[in-house]
Amino acid sequence: MSASILVVGSVAFDSLKTPFGEAEEILGGSATYFSVAASYFSPIRLVAVVGSDFPDKHREVFRKHHIDTGGLVQVEGKTFRWKGEYGYDLNEARTLDTQLNVFEKFKPVIPKSYHDSDYVFLGNIDPELQLSVLEQIRRPRIVAFDSMNFWIRGKLEAVKKTIRHVDILIINDAETRMLANEPNLVRAAKRIQEMGPKTLIVKRGEYGVLMFNGTSVFGAPAFPLENVYDPTGAGDSFAGGFMGALAQFNEIDERAFRRCIIFGSVMASFNVEQFGLQRLSSLDRKQIDDRFCEFKALTHFDV
Ligand code: AMP
């Protein structure tokens, strides 16, 4: 039986511009993309905060995906806002504006019914909040962690303190270099493993992912797509597919990690095919499993 995943992260209004279109104040956030992607595999428990401006129609997205929102609190004030822009290569988001708003004073209180969660994902959010989540629950089987340059630059010591308690780090290549203060990715990965996490999954946009697990290394390409429209949330939907599948199969070893990396890559590939959550939130399990099989063909070779 699949295990439940507790996720904490941002629920946001995103304003986005890519060479192919733009959108104002659409539903986004690290916890949102993660939850929707992971919900195709396992039950999700969401912890986040939104403001009084958060409309009921957005809650419908969570309801549709059977995401438990008992930990999503609504307080007086404005919801977190992020504004980003992408150039033609779509690999790197340029942040134009970050407004923490209700996240500035947020102190997550984990509902009692979430305390036994076996899998925990600390999504991109203030590292002090990430740590306070771990302090409130009993030790899960797996804790995974994501962050971004905003927090690594702004709260480096808190990031380092939090990752001491983390099993799997899922961050992108630029963040890996920044966190380790080391330009070579392999050396940077080793340095981060020494900080606590045994496993590091480095997201490399259209070039795929690299996993450093103990002393072994595994690489997977990104799925080659003809239409890439909006990369926002690709990293979080990768993490959602990875953790969701991990919790569904409930096996923790290198074989399982490798298989779940492909599920993560499948979810990220769907996510970028349309703007915002459009594609990610309208999938069925057969489409996911079919693309998983296409991935197997894509990476198969004989010795
Ligand atoms: P990704 O493209 O997967 O790296 O994540 C994009 C999501 O991260 C967007 O939906 C944003 O709302 C969210 N985000 C951007 N900056 C921050 C931040 N500083 N803290 C938390 N969430 C953020």
Describe this structure in words.
By secondary structure, the protein is α/β, with parallel strands linked by helices. The protein has a single domain, classed as UDP-N-acetylmuramoyl-L-alanine:D-glutamate ligase. The protein has 10 helices and 13 strands. The chain has a 9-stranded mixed sheet with strand order 5-4-1-8-9-10-11-12-13, with helices on both faces. It has a 4-stranded mixed sheet with strand order 3-2-6-7. Helix 3 runs parallel beside helix 5 (156-163). The protein is globular, with a radius of gyration of 18 Å. The mean pLDDT is 96. The site of adenosine monophosphate (AMP) has 18 residues, from strand 2, helix 1 and helix 8.
Give the helix/strand layout:
Layout: E1 5-8, E2 12-18, E3 21-28, H1 30-38, E4 44-50, H2 56-64, E5 68-74, E6 80-86, E7 93-99, E8 119-122, H3 127-136, E9 142-145, H4 149-154, H5 156-163, E10 168-172, H6 173-180, H7 185-194, E11 199-203, E12 209-213, E13 216-220, H8 234-249, H9 254-271, H10 285-299
Parallel strand pairs: 1-4, 1-8, 2-6, 4-5, 8-9, 9-10, 10-11
Antiparallel strand pairs: 2-3, 6-7, 11-12, 12-13
Helix pairs in contact: 1-8, 3-5, 6-7, 8-9, 9-10
Bound molecules: adenosine monophosphate.
